[in-house]
Amino acid sequence: MRTVIRNGQVIDPGNGINGIRNLYIHNREIIGIGSKPAGFTADREVNASGQYVLPGIIDLCVRLREPGEEHKATIQSETRAAASAGITRMVCTPDTFPIIDTPAMVHMVINRAQDLGYARVHPLGALTVGLQGQRLTDMAMLMDAGCVGVSNAQEIVKNTLVMRRAMQYASTYDLPVFLTPRDAWLQGNGVVHEGEVSTRLGLPAIPEAAETVGVARDLALIETSGARAHFDLISCGRSVTMIAEAQDRGLPVTSSVAIHQLLFSENDIGAFDTQYKVMPPLRTRQDKTDLIRGVAKGQIAAICSDHQPHGADSKLAPFSEAATGIAGIDTLLTLTMGLVRERKLDMETAVSALTVHPARILGTNAGHLGIGAQADLCLYDPQKNWQLDQHTMQSKGRNSPFYGVKLKGKVTRTMLSGKWVYQ
Amino acid sequence: MRAPDSSIQFDENGHLKHFLTVNGLTRKSLVNILDTAESFINFGQREIKKVPLLRGKTLVNLFFEPSTRTRTTFEIAGKRLSADVINLNASRMSTTKGESILDTVRTLEAMHTDLFIVRDKASGAAHLIAAHLPDHIKVINAGDGRHSHPTQAMLDMFTIRQKKPDFSRLKVAIVGDILHSRVARSQIHALNILGVDEVRVIGPRTLIPTEIEKMGVTTTSDLIGGLEGIDVIIMLRIQHERMDGQLIPSEQEYFQRYGLTENKLQLANEDAIVMHPGPINRGLEIASSVADGSRSVILNQVTNGIAVRMSIMAKLMGGQEKRS
Amino acid sequence: MGNAIDIERVIREMAAHILSLDLPKPLLVGIHTGGVWVASHLQRELDISSRPGMLDISFYRDDFTRVGLHPEVRSSELPDPVEDRNVILVDDVLYSGRTVRAAMNEIFSYGRPARVVLAVLIERPGRELPIQPDIVGSRLVLDDNEQAKLTHTDGILKLNIIRPGNTHEGT
Hints:
The complex is a heterotrimer.
Chain A: E1 2-12, E2 17-26, E3 29-33, E4 44-47, E5 52-55, E6 57-62, H1 75-84, E7 87-92, H2 103-116, E8 120-126, H3 139-145, E9 149-151, H4 160-172, E10 177-179, H5 184-187, E11 192-193, H6 196-201, E12 205-206, H7 208-225, E13 229-231, H8 237-248, E14 253-258, H9 285-296, E15 302-304, H10 332-341, H11 347-354, H12 356-362, E16 377-387, E17 406-416, E18 419-422
Parallel strand pairs in A: 1-4, 1-5, 6-7, 7-8, 8-9, 9-10, 10-13, 11-12, 13-14, 14-15
Antiparallel strand pairs in A: 1-2, 2-3, 5-16, 16-17, 17-18
Helix pairs in contact in A: 2-3, 4-7, 7-8, 8-9, 10-11
Chain B: H1 27-40, E1 58-63, H2 68-80, E2 84-88, H3 99-109, E3 115-120, H4 125-131, E4 138-144, H5 150-163, E5 171-175, H6 182-193, E6 198-202, E7 218-220, H7 223-226, E8 232-235, H8 251-258, H9 262-265, E9 273-275, H10 288-291, H11 298-317
Chain C: H1 7-21, E1 26-31, H2 34-46, E2 53-55, H3 64-67, E3 86-94, H4 98-110, E4 115-123, E5 135-139, E6 147-153, E7 156-162, E8 167-169
Helix pairs in contact in C: 1-2
């Protein structure tokens, strides 16, 4: 099967391309860009004029809820939703029921996603058994089964010695460690950032130090253990600085940020709006600005959705008891492009943070449209107006601050391994 | 623009629909509540201590957190206005599913309740309930977590006004556990709206929340210096569960630094009054001789609670048509 | 309207009428605000020592669910108990009768009087309830959109007829 995508604006920062090009695909591979490969005759033509042609989006932090919470979402519902949003590859955290701490669980998730064929799913294995922060998992076997890294998800490894040994052990196999840096005691039962809003609303608060103490501890451990580490979901401007300093010293650390941290601050919580309850919490306006700057300067490599689908009722509770998180895969690309439209990020940075940068973090040759690369890509209409609602939202989750909101820019087609999985 | 946690209290014409927080109300509206309460004050003298304003209305005291005292004053207030009052000491599971609070409310709604008085341990609970009820059902917040306790703040303002009618000249000190106090938060809003000269919060730094200055207060951790020039001293209750040695090292040290004694009272203005939302921990935050002394208006606060709550109920339940 | 009313004279006549009823232990109660003024004048004429009671009937009005409470509600004050007294309920203008209905309900919240008589300075037709006065100062016929309003300045009572657009002053 030979496909040509004509007249689209190909944006491929991995190969330094941003311009109107034809893209030539044969079976699963990209075989030409711009000039037609010799002897190419198209079986299928797609006119992409007025649209962006982007590498398939790579989302570094999602929850698919399967196994264990299929009433919230399933691998089927969420990989389909991913396809409809241009996401071709996603990393899921091990906090399912049962927890992904055995090779069998890894196989189950990967195989299920492969059978469905909407998007590639890369599980993270649990860093500790049952995410309980006490005993190390069989990391080498998890890696052999297909884990791209290990993580303790949202559960904090309180015992610093356990964390140190987990990093040392992971580094034995050069297995990346995904970290959510937090101090358990400072976080306590907090639900919002400690500041003006927590004080006014009287909500249990999480100080900035809950994260910076975690970053400092983990950086010290990374430095001595030699682990390859990735900080997921950082939320404070100070964390960006600390991680950037470590990178300058040559430490093998990267970081990512959830898209909602670039759009909202604590002030958006308004009157106990539980749609804005996320973890780590939305911080100050200054933090938001610092995080955007961190992405712009490449200090934060990737933007992810931190996708957490919930049922409709889960947010109908007092703030501190409501479910945490946003169902974000449907809107990840649209919202990131919004930041480009508002000139907060340039196009190359934004697309890199969704494609080639996360690919590098995963150590895979993906996230770009170079010749010989897997044909994972999407077409994006930057002018298309739509509204996130029950008809358009593909995730089974309904928890989004953008539910019912009019948006601009939408994926129109997604190709996975040379096959259209959404159009 | 109204404060976001306040806007839900108003209907589309700007009339007060629920009473959830003092934040965002106008001075006129607070003064109106106090004035109306004034007319309910002498009710005890009547042969029949009732007026028919809420006759035929059903009022549900929905207390997810037990509080006999507050519940009782709401009950008496409702009954003096001739409402049918139902008391429910509901318990609920604190789960992430969280349907139970709204389920309870919907069940009661089906019984044609007109007014809910809600008390819950979670901040924002009254807002949640108000947001999910049909338009004609009103909600009064009787305390939600650490967020707000607006009727208590209003009865405190009433008590202050009885002794000190000119708010603009007042310096008010709020002393103790500000961090966990919904009463303090509501008082701070009310005092600022009524235009006091200064609200000073006093306590150890572990009990003063971050950025409280943005609510319009000054802060100090020194009670002795902090009482200078003060006209109204509001002592807050120290909850026993806070005495775990992390926020306050010991009762002795707390009382030594922040307990109000006769001697420390002398540091405030000579006609300063002493208030406490109750229940009092004698010898922990306040000496018995001060609590029972001539400057204490603590019992007035209790008495005034009924009239102020009647006033707030009447304000919510009255019609909004233009007077002919 | 050319209804020039000599209020002083009318009140003297009302007082004479009240005296003729020969009520033991009379208790004057005026309805806030005009009724209280009339009651004060009657008190002087009747030579009763205790000052008249004052009723603010806001809490007993039948339009609460429509218009809410008046923002300036006053506390009702009855200086003497009403139990077994002959209450002379005084208002300035009797029109629909709703105010008097509310006032009677309120009086009974204070106790059980022996008798209640109603004295009004002005009676105008338009009753919506079966309420009739015992003592009437003057009768006045007005259009529906006209309003009779008593004012009180420096101890002098004046009756104003308010019409939409302009105000005509009587005496």
